[in-house]
Amino acid sequence: MFHQSMKFTSSYKRLLNMAAFWSMLLLSVIFASSPVLAAKNKDSIIILVSKKFGPYLQCEMGVKDFVKRRWKRPFEMATIYLSEHSDLETKEKISQLSPTLAICIGTRAAYFLDGLKPHFPWVATFLLDKSIESLKSRPLLAVSMDVPIEVRIQTLCRIKKHVHAAVLGYKVPVSPIKPIETGKCRDRDAYMIVSPFFSSIKTALQKVLELSVNSFFITADPRIFNSQEVVSYTLLWGLRNKIAVCGLSSGYVKNGALYSLEADVVALGSQAAGLALGYVNGKVKGETIIQHPDKLLLSINLKTAKRLGIEIPRSVMDEAFWVIE
Predict the structure, then answer these.
(1) Confidence bin at 17 (pLDDT 50/70/90)
(2) DSSP sequence for 284-305
(3) What is the Cα–Cα distance from 53 to 80, expressed in whole angstroms?
(4) What is the DSSP-derived secondary structure letter of residue 44?
(5) Higher pLDDT residue, 26 or 132?
(6) pLDDT tens-digit series, residues 271-318
(7) Domain map (residue ranges) of the chain
(8) How does DSSP assign 200-226, residue by residue?
(9) Top CATH class, 149-263+296-324
(10) In what order do the strands lie in the sheet with 75-81?
(11) Domain made up of 38-146+267-291: CATH architecture
């Protein structure tokens, strides 16, 4: 009886071992034939880039650098350039990669993925606030390249006193004067006023002159500043009327704007990747999260400053990335 019990136990163990062997063999076949299952424990990150060109590539570099340095979980990363593929090819590539996360660089990339209504989270960057407002996906995660007017006017208050500034608003009435009494504008006699724009930049800027301002902010509103001619006219108008025009980038400064603040494009990519990491780790929560650039580049035109009778403080000069002399 004892001998039979031992024999039964031994047979039972052999059966268990064989079952385990076949289970492992079957799983190995399944994983080998299915890249999706094999990579299930990895974050599959795609970077969707509008153009394979200059600043888009710099932003992509910022994304990749952040992920390689800071992404603690296993991951695989692939880049798709929209300018090199048809829409159908891009859809097929995304489907094959089965991403768990995407980062879109540029307006076209963001609009494309938004239209697909993906089931995975994604972050849009290197686009303007106006473009972000058009996106329908939820959650909406984005890092805008726009520098808020409040940040731009703080820099102007560091450059000069008595900042009486105007900005154009599309088809809005003239706003009441809004004093700026925070940060660097405290005790600087600073205020902002919104002047209307309807159809003509010449008419709109003439009305700005009637407000007795000494500073003017160009904005990223494409309904107003919709051509190089409009921008050039505005910059020349500022020089002729001794009004400090504040541009959007170093290009504006080279053409006569007093100064500009713009996003550091590489840092913008890193910031977008940081937002993505915070979201997938549960540290960043919300249905709509829109950030603005953390790192800014300052450009100054000393020729324009001299023409306007403005002396740029040394502390501001030391922070300038570009100086036009």
Answers:
(1) low
(2) S--SEEEE--SSEEEEEEHHHH
(3) 13
(4) E
(5) 132
(6) 999 999 999 999 988 899 999 999 999 999 999 999 999 999 999 999
(7) 38-146+267-291, 149-263+296-324
(8) -HHHHHHHHHTTT-SEEE----TTTS-
(9) alpha beta
(10) 75-81, 43-49, 101-105, 122-125, 140-143, 288-291
(11) 3-Layer(aba) Sandwich (3.40)
